[in-house]
Amino acid sequence: MLCQFTFKNFKSYKDETIFDFQAATLPEFKETLITAESAPMLLPVSAIYGPNGGGKSNLLQALSCVISTIVKPVHELEKNRQPLILQQKVDVTPFLFDEVSSNEPTEFKLFFLIDSNLYCYYIALTKDEVVSESLSRKSVTGKRSADIFDREKNKITLGYSINKKNININVNPKMPYLSFLAINYEIPEISGVITWFESCIIRNYANPVTEHQTMIEKYPIFKDQFIKALNDMDIDITDYRYDEANKQLYTRRQLGNREYELSFTEESDGTRKLIAALPVILLALREGRLVIIDELDAKLHPKLLRYVILLFKNKEINCHGAQLLFTSHDMSTMKNTIFRRDEIWFAACNESHESDIYSLHELRNEDGTCIKNTAAYDKQYLEGRYGADPYLQNMLGGAFK
């Protein structure tokens, strides 16, 4: 489970930026939080809003970048512990509107929870070369963390837990040492960490190619659950089959006493989107994975988007700590009946083309008070009170005044 993600000097984000899945002390929806003994309470869902060009997608790409950087070499050598669901590798791109930043490393730091241990992984990259890297671990009940390894350019120092295994400390400067260890050794600490990275699901539904990657044929175990979920969303599919010969999915519907079959390509845009997205969502819920989706709301009716969000917030369904991080422009779900205040985030870009993010929980009214959990979030956002101003007039510098 992801606790916190920090990054610096990536695309439109120049300064250090912190995205937090740790729950704030708030009264609303406590029953939806992911809890474990002695561990921090975590959010099951986070949504990022903001204008086009504000940095929403770049935030998700930053997280996708570090994940794909780690898992790609492992996957290419067929050493991964489980199948990957990554759309593509995201390259390291620094903030380019500054002569200093464009030549400095891009930095990533992740805090994530595996069983009863909190891990911290850090990597700094320049043009895909590793400048520095480290991995440490701390028990959730402990006070001190233990280094697993530390790397500064060509110098690698091994921590006590792996130092006795005659491990090679000479590695290609383009290769993350975490990936190198996962490829060449079976070390429990490393295997657990690399499996966590491989479990992360990354999808971008702004890309039409993704809508044709149904994946349902790969997970027949989800068939009944998949059909039930579609039926819950008023899509009356009774069955489906996958034709291996032409690589085509066919859905079936019962009308009266007759059954009809429709190819996937003949379904509506919204139905195709759901058929493509649901398998990975059900997989995440079943196995407690992190799902990162850009433009989850694209082509989805607001009721369907709400249904997907609430799957992750239902502790009976999401009993393994799955998390959903997505971007959206849909205002109808920005409600106090759906989200906690710390689950709503905004991305905005200033006049220097630098992006920043902040949660609704962090915002203050003019009198310094917090936004109340009874507020009409969508209405106040459209009024421009949350900073990531959606007004076209303001986005274009008053051109239509």
In the CATH hierarchy, the third-tier topology of the largest domain is known as Rossmann fold
Task: Report the major sheet.
Answer: 7 strands, antiparallel
Instruction: Quote the beta fraction.
Output: 25-35%
Number of helices: 8
The N- and C-terminal alpha carbons lie at a distance of: 47 Å
Counting DSSP E segments of at least 2 residues, the number of strands comes to: 17
Largest beta sheet: what is the strand line-up? 2-1-5-6-7-8-9
- Mean pLDDT, to the nearest integer, reads 86
- Structure class: alpha/beta
Helix share of residues? 10-25%
The topology string of helices and strands comes to EEEHEEEEEEHHEHEEEHEHEEEHH
Gyration radius, in Å = 22 Å
Instruction: Supply the number of structural domains.
Output: 2
Task: Describe this protein's structure.
The chain is an alpha/beta fold and 401 residues long. The chain has 2 domains: 2-200 and 289-395, 3-Layer(aba) Sandwich (Rossmann fold), CATH 3.40.50; 215-274, no CATH class. It is 23% helix and 26% strand. It has 8 helices and 17 strands. It has helices at 56-76, 177-184, 188-199, 223-232, 269-287, 302-313, 377-382, 392-395, and strands spanning 2-8, 17-20, 45-49, 85-86, 106-114, 117-126, 129-139, 146-152, 155-158, 201-204, 239-243, 248-255, 258-263, 290-294, 323-327, 344-349, 355-359. It has a 7-stranded antiparallel sheet with strand order 2-1-5-6-7-8-9. A hairpin with a 2-residue loop joins β8 and β9 (155-158). The termini are far apart.
